[in-house]
Amino acid sequence: MTVNLSEQRPQVARPVAETVVPAPVPAFARVRRLALEVAKFGVVGGSGVAVNFLVFNLLLHAVSWAPMTATVMASVVAMGTNYLGFRFFAYRDRSSRTRQQIALFFVFSGIGVMMESLLFYIGYHGLGMNGSLGSNAAKALSIVLASAFRFLVYRTWVFQHEAKQGAGAR
């Protein structure tokens, strides 16, 4: 048997590439993707909560700062560490970093800090949740409630998928 190596394969006509419309995502896949997103948000948020509590307790109990100053400063420090976690871990599959994304993150995080501080104030001063245990309980409740807001705005407006972001956002 002889093989002719100089033979060429016949050329097959290929259709012109058309715009590909992604198939609808089944409900199970959407739920799974959302669950994974919530889990990643929880990992980053959990580390942010740890930073928040650590800084809060150091400032309030070790350095004797005023409770409101301690809670705001702790939230701001946690906000900075959270940005890095969200950008490079939880939402790394989303669009690349832009000025708009950074601005939106810090605007919504600032609103979250204000919400958290207001809720802490209500718990600490209004409900008498002061002292070591009470202040930490007030802090925990304020973080939980403000985190729900943060989750919604971060996933909806800050760390958007490329398709949702559009060409004008860059």
Folded structure, characterized:
This protein is mainly alpha-helical and 170 residues long. It is built from five helices and no strands. The mean pLDDT is 82.
Pick out its properties.
170 residues, 5 helices, mainly alpha, single chain
Tell me roughly what share of residues is in helical segments: over 70%
| Secondary-structure element order, N to C | HHHHH
Shape: elongated
Stretches where pLDDT falls below 50 for ≥5 residues? Answer: none
Structure summary, number of beta strands = 0
| Total DSSP helices | 5
Oligomer: single chain
Q: Major beta sheet, specifics? A: none
- Fraction in beta strands: under 5%
Label the structural class. Answer: mainly alpha
| Radius of gyration over C-alpha positions, nearest whole angstrom | 24 Å
CA-CA gap between termini: 62 Å
Summarize the structure.
By secondary structure, the chain is mostly helical.
Protein topology:
Elements lengths: L26 H36 L4 H24 L8 H28 L4 H28 L3 H4 L5
